[in-house]
Fold each of these.
Amino acid sequence: MPLPKPPTQKASLLGPRDFEAQAAPRALKRGTATTDEASAPPALLDPAPLAADADLGARPPRAPSRSPRSRSAARPEGLDPAPTVPPQAVPAPVHAGNPAIETPPRTAVREQRPATEPARARPRRLAGGPAKLFVLDTNVLMHDPTSLFRFEEHDILLPMITLEELDGHKKGMSEVSRNVRQVSRELDALVAAMGHGAFDSAAGIPLAKTGHREAGGKLFFQTKLLEVKLPQGLPQGKADNQILGVVQHLVEAHPTREVVLVSKDINMRVKARALGLAAEDYTNDKTLEDGDLLYTGVLALPADFWDRHGKTMESWQQGGATYYRIAGPMVPVLLVNQFVYLETPGAAPLYAKVTEITGKTAVLRTLKDYTHAKNSVWGVTARNREQNFALNLLMDPDCDFITLAGTAGTGKTLMTLAAGLSQVLDERRYSEIIVTRVTVPLGEDIGFLPGTEEEKMGPWMGALDDNLEFLARNDSGAGEWGRAATNDLVRSKIKVKSLNFMRGRTFMNKFLLIDEAQNLTPKQMKALITRAGPGTKIVCLGNLAQIDTPYLTEGSSGLTYVVDRFKGWPHSGHVTLARGERSRLADFASDVL
C-alpha cells in the first residue's frame, strides 16, 4: 500500500482522504490508554508512526464502520481525527533529525505516573520503617550484663523500676551482683559519653558511644510517671506489673512501632501475652536453639565408606597404631579429634580418631582398646563404644581440654578419676587432682556448713567419695591394711576446691576436674578454664538434662558453650556418652521417668 506524501509544513495534519486509505487502527487494550494521550491535542501526536503502523500491519484494511462525515460531525470544526496509539505500539521516530517535524516528548506519561505504587512502596517502607523498641526486664540485665548491646539496630528502653531493682542487687559477691555492677558501669559510661550537660531524653543515647559498634540503636529511659490502667487483678505496686504498664503505654503511644518486652521470667511473658502485649525470651545467650544439635564428638561412617574412599587411601603403622590418609566426600564434615566408627556384619569394626585435616585429606588413627582387661585404667575397663572413646581422650597427653556429657550412670566421674589417678600416681604426668563443682542444691538449702574449705565442700563431693571407694575395692590383693594405705595416698593427691575462690589462681601441672558443669554460666566457665597454666588438663563433666541454676537452659549452659567453641581444636575433645552402665534399675529409670 503506498504511503502518503510527507507533510511540507510544520505540524500539518492529514486530510480525510489520506486517513481513509490507511488501515484501521489496532484495538487498544483495556487500561493502556493514558489520560495524557486522550487529552492531548492532535497537533502533539506524530503522524509518521501511524503510517508506519499501517505498513507493518499484517491484516488487510477494513472498511470504516461509519463515514468520515459522521465522525467529523461529532468534533469541532477544523480538527481532523487523530487515533489514540498505545505507547508500546509507537516505534522509535525515524525522522528524529528532521527539524520540520516535532516528536512528542516521551516523558509526558512518566511524569504524571502516580507517586505511590504498591510494588515499589512496600520495600521502601520495610527498609526505612522504624526500628523495634525493646523493653528490658531486670532479670535480662542480671543474666547478661552485655545484653544492652545485643539488639543490633533496634532501640532499648529501661523503665525506672528496672534501675531501682538493679540498685537493690548491686551489693554482694554473687555472680548476679557482679553482673549488676557491670551493667551500672556500662550505663554510667553511656551517660558520661553524652557530655557534662543534661542529655535529651527524648532523643536517646546512641549505644555505640562506648565503642560497641555492633549496637546501632539508642537507649531510652522512662522519665515520666505513667498512668496506665491494668486489670484489677494485677497489683499496681509490683515491679513486674509496673513494667507491663510501661509496655502498654508505649504500645498506645507508638501505634506504628513494634514494642516488645524481653524477659527471662516465664510468668512475666505469660502475663504480657495475656494482656495482648508482645513478649520474647532473651535468646542471644543461647549457643544452640535445640539441644539435639549439640556436637557429639562421634560420627558413624556409611557402609560404603571404603568403596568411596579406598581408591586413593594411604595407610601405615606407627607406635602400635594404624594411620589412614583418606580423600573423599566425607573429609569436609570431619573435625580434628572427632571419633569415627564403622561396624559392618562379617567384617572387623573400625574405631578411629581424626588426628589431622589438611586441605581435602584427613588422617585417621586407630584407637587403643580399653575394653580389654590388659588395658584397664586403675581397674576400670570400658563397657561400651563411647566409654572407649572417652578413655582414649582422657589418657591422651596432647588433649588439654576434654568435655564429657551424658545421662546419670554413664560413668563420667569414674572414668575421669581413674584416668587422673593413673596419670598422677603411675605416670607422674600431673602433680595432683583438683576437684570442684557448682554448689547448687537439688532441694532446700541445709544452711551454714562449719569447717575448712574442704570440709564445707565435703557434702557436695559425695559422688567423688563413692567413686574412690569403688576404685579402692579393685585392689583386692593388697589386703585391708594395703587398701587403707592406698586410700590415704589417693586422698593426699586429691584436693577439693570451691569455685568461689578460683579467680586469680593459676594451676600448673594439675589435673582439674569440673563436675556438674552444666550448672555453670558461660562467664563462669571462661573464668575457670583461663586458670589453666602449663601442663594442666581440664575435664568438664555434666548432664544437660539436670540443670539446677535459674535462668539456664540447655542452649545457654556453659557446658554447651564450651563444647561448641572448642570443637575442632587439635588439643580438645568431646564425647557424649549414650548408654548408662550403673545398673539396670538406673538405666530403666532414665528412660521412663
Amino acid sequence: MCISLGLNTLVQTNVAWAHVVLADDWCANRPPNAAAGSFSVSAQKGCAPFTVTVKNTTNSPDNLFLYVYDYQGGDPVAAKAGVADITHVYTKPGKYKILQIGNVSTGSVACQEIEVLDATPPNFRAYSCANMKVVVDIPRDAVTEQYDDFKIDWNDGSPVETVSKTGAGAITAIHTYQNKATYQIKVSGNYQSINCGGGSFQQVTPLLDTEFTKPVITKLTTTGTTATLQVQAGAQQSVTLYQKDASGAYIARPISRVGNGSLVATDITAHPTCFKVVSQNACGEKFESDEVCSIGLRVEAREKENEVIWNAPGNPANFQQYTVTKNDATLRTLNGLTTTSVVDSDGITCNESYCYQITALVGSVEIVSDQLCITAGSSTPPPPFSTVQVSVNSDNRVDLRSIPPIPTSQSPSYRMVIFRQDQPGGAFAQTSMEVDRNIHQDGGVQPDQQSYCYQVVYQNACGGSSEPSKTVCTIYLNSRSASTINWTGESPFADEVIDRYIIEKVDGNGTVLEEITVDLNTSYEPVQDDPNALEARFRVKAVSKSGAISYSNFYTYLFPQAQRLFVPDAFTPNGDGLNDLLEVKGSTNFQSLQLTVYNRWGEVVFSTENREGWDGTINGQPAQPGTYAYRINVVNLEGKKTEKTGSVLLIR
C-alpha cells in the first residue's frame, strides 16, 4: 500500500489516508504494507465517565496521527472517523478499541483496548433503631452485584467503612452515633482494582430511646370490606399491621407505614376482626399496640320499625359507651358492652331510606362500624290481583292486563311481577316486571305454536308481595283433524268465566269477514262455501260474562281437497300422448313446488321448480327403463313446508 498524502494535506483535510478497500478489522489485521504504530493510554480501566489521554510513542511527529476512540471495524479512512484529539471521555460502560492511524511512510496502525465500568450508585436504605443506632441495608440487585465491595461514609467524622459482599444474604452495616443530629450518609460502590464507583446519599436522624415507643391505634373505621386504622408512632418509626386469624394467632400483613397516619386493609369480610400494630426496628426490638376489634352491623326492616343489631368489638376492659346514629344524628347512647341492639320506631315511614352506624368508645380509642341503609317496609302482604286477562294481538305477541288491587290514588307506586308457565303442568318462572304499570306485552313467546299461562304478583311500595293471581292462559287455535279447527279451553280471565266463543273469519289484512258464535264449544268445522277457495283464515274470540274479550292466534285452515298431492306409480314416455310425463298432480295452492328425480345410485337425473314434469330423458337422451326415486318439496301460502318422497317406474 502506498500513501502519497503529505503533511500539508493531513493538516488541511484532517484525513491522513486515501480511500482504499482494506480488511474488515484493522486491529486484528493491519492493512497490507502498513507499519506498526505505537501509543500509550493513561489508564486501561476506569469508571464512567472515564477520561483517557493517548500519547504517541513512535519517533514520528504527533501531528501525523489520528485516533478512533470507538473503533468497531471497517475502513476508518473511508468513514473519516479519525480525530487528532488526544483526550476522550467515555460516558457509557463497556469495552472499547482505540485505533491509531499514522501518515508516515507507507502508513501505520496500532490498537489498544480499554474497559469502562458502570458507576451507577447503589440503592440503599438507612433507618434508625433506638439507642442512637442506624442500620444501612444495601439490597442485592443488578447494580449491587457488579461491585466488589462498598464504602460507607457515616458523615460523623469516623473513618469510611468498607463493607464486603459475603455470602448471598443481605448486605448490612450498623453504626452508633454519639450525638443527636441529622447526618447525610453516603454509600458508594467500589471496584477494588481501580478504587472507583458511584455513590448515593440519604439523610438519617438517629433515635433516642424515648423516640422509639409503643405504637397506639386511635381509631378503627370499617366501610364495606375496608378497615382503616389511625395510628400514632414515632416520626421515624415503622409500624406493620397484624390481624388475628381464626385460631387466635396474630399474623403480619404486608401493610405498613412510618410515623403517624393510616393503615388500610381492603379484604375484611367478618366482624369483629381484631388488629394490632407492631413496630420492630432493625436491631430486633419489638413494640406492640393494644388490641382493637371492629364492629359488625346489620339492620332489619319490620312493620314500620327498624331493628339495629351489632357485634361487640371483642371484650375490652376499658369499654365506655356505644353511640347509635340514624341519618348521621344521634339516636341512642348505651353504656353496656353486651347491649348490642336497638329497635327504632321513631317516625319510620314506609319506603323511606334510613342509615344507621355504631360508634364504640373504648378508652381513648374510637371504633366506628360501617354505615348501613335500609328502606322501611311492612310485613303485611298486600292483596293479590283479581282482575287479570291475556290476549294474543295481531303482532303474534301476548298482551296482559290487570287492575291493581289497591287503587293508585292510595298507593301510586307498585310493581306487577309476571310469571309464565311454558309447558302444561310446568313451573311458573318470573319473566318480567312492570313498575307503576298494569299492562305488559310478552314478545318472547310463540302463541301460534302453543298456549301460555300467566300469574301476576302485586308488590307494594314497602316491598311486600301478594299471593299469585289466578292463572290465565292464552287461547291457542290450530287444527287437530282434516275437517275441524280446535282451540284450548283454559280461561284467559282470572276473575270471571267465559260466556261464549265467537269464530272470526278474516281476510289477509285481518278484516273480519264473518262471525260465528259457537257457545262454549272448543272446535268448529269450517264450511267451504266457495268451491274455488282452498283455505280460510280464522281466530277465536272469547267473551266473558261482563263483556271482556280475549283473542286467540290467527290460523289458516286448508280445506281437505286443497291438501291433496298425487304422483303416478309409473309413466310411459313413448310419445303417444298418454302418460308421457312424470308430473305432480292435485292441488295448485302452493307458493313453490320442487320435484327432484334420482337414479338407483342416488344421482340427480332431473330437477324442476314448476309443474312441467319429467319427460324421461337425461341430457336429451332417453333414460333407461326401471325404477326411479323422487322427492317433492312444497310450501303453501302460509309458508308451511311439506315433503313427499316415493318411487316411480319408467316403462318403454
